[in-house]
Specification:
By secondary structure, the protein is of the alpha/beta class. Helix content is 36%, strand content 29%. The protein binds adenosine-5'-triphosphate. Adenosine-5'-triphosphate binds at residues 12, 15, 17, 35, 37-43, 82, 191. Belongs to the ABC transporter superfamily.
């Protein structure tokens, strides 16, 4: 395992921020850490990055214990916090050179390393621009380049897409895919990011400091036995909605212009039965099938009732 936590707990005074958290992320995997504000994502990431001490349990990066061997952890890990500091009077190049220096990269290697990193994050054209003048999306990409200066095997990215517009999110996602292609092991957090579904090999859902679901996107949704489905009909929406609501297997019915999205609890046989009922009731069904699962929907379904 490249990233691992064992019975990790953290208390801030009276606040129990993390409780018995067990995470394990294999080499080369991208793990999405999903949870609402205050769930404990940043706390976990800070502990793994050696910037915060846990109350109980252990955490490891590349086999190094964060408490016993913090130097080795920092050499193996790139950590991107959820906010970008203010850097007056530093250009993108100077900024990366500063961090390369901090990681003791020999001076003669720094300029080619910095040029390569800027290229990787599509910022070569902004090499001499002041960091404070860059857009948020560009600053996030520069932040990503910064955590790569020492070529770490593991990356921890705390909500890298927050505050970005859709285009900037896509750009960031493409870079993260490239990093995955380079064999990096990545822990990435989000509170609402459907885009993570495509990016992540596995996800963990955290709520109030506890991991409440973990596995592949598919497994996590299957575990709950609830599938996101779509139904399209030619008119007859009211009857269809009534029948779905009466079936006892449909949760979170949402009506769109030309159909419904539902969360269905049951197996394939039960899906077929529901379709038969719709047709027997004379409802002209145009489409009835699984919707492309996205993390936002799954998150709502999984956390339903947990926080009460
Ligand atoms: N320094 C601190 N002192 C006291 N309580 C804290 C501190 N940092 C975090 N907390 C509390 O610990 C809990 C977990 O916070 P954490 O920042 O880890 O959550 P998060 O999942 O990263 O949330 P967000 O999505 O808002 O970043 C919250 O209840 C938070 O209020």
């Amino acid at each position: 395992m490249v990233i691992e936590t064992l019975h990790l707990s953290k208390r801030y005074g009276n606040v129990q921020a993390l409780t018995d958290l067990n995470l394990s992320i294999e080499a080369g995997k991208v793990f999405g850490f999903i949870g609402p504000n205050g769930a404990g994502k940043s706390t976990t990431m800070l502990i793994l990055s050696t910037l915060l001490e846990q109350t109980e349990g252990d955490a490891f990066v590349c086999g190094y214990n964060v408490r016993k061997n913090p130097e080795a952890v920092r050499q193996s890990l790139g950590y991107m916090p959820d906010f970008f500091g203010v850097y007056d009077n530093l250009t993108a190049v100077e900024y990366l050179e500063f961090y390369a220096g901090a990681f003791k990269i020999p001076a003669r290697k720094r300029s080619s390393l910095v040029a390569d990193l800027l290229e990787l994050v599509n910022l070569s054209h902004k090499a001499d621009a002041y960091v404070d003048s860059l857009s948020r999306g560009m600053q996030q990409r520069l932040g990503l380049a910064r955590c790569l200066v020492h070529d770490p095997s593991a990356l921890i990215l705390d909500e890298p897409a927050s505050g970005l517009d859709p285009r900037a999110r896509i750009e960031l996602r493409e870079i993260i895919k490239q990093l995955r292609g380079m064999g990096k092991t990545i822990l990435i957090s989000s509170h609402i990011l459907p885009e993570l579904a495509e990016l992540c090999d596995e996800i963990g859902v955290i709520e109030r400091g506890r991991l409440i679901a973990c596995g592949s996107v598919h497994e996590v949704s299957k575990d709950r036995g609830r599938t996101l489905m779509e139904l399209k009909t030619l008119g007859h929406e009211e009857e269809a909605a009534h029948l779905l609501n009466q079936s006892g297997r449909v949760f979170q019915l949402e009506e769109y212009v030309d159909g419904f999205q539902i969360r269905f609890e049951g197996n394939e046989q039960q899906k077929a039965e529901l379709l038969q009922q719709l047709i027997a009731a004379g409802i002209p069904v145009v489409f009835f099938g699984d919707a492309k699962e996205n993390l936002e929907d799954m998150f709502l379904a999984i956390t339903e009732g947990v926080s009460g």
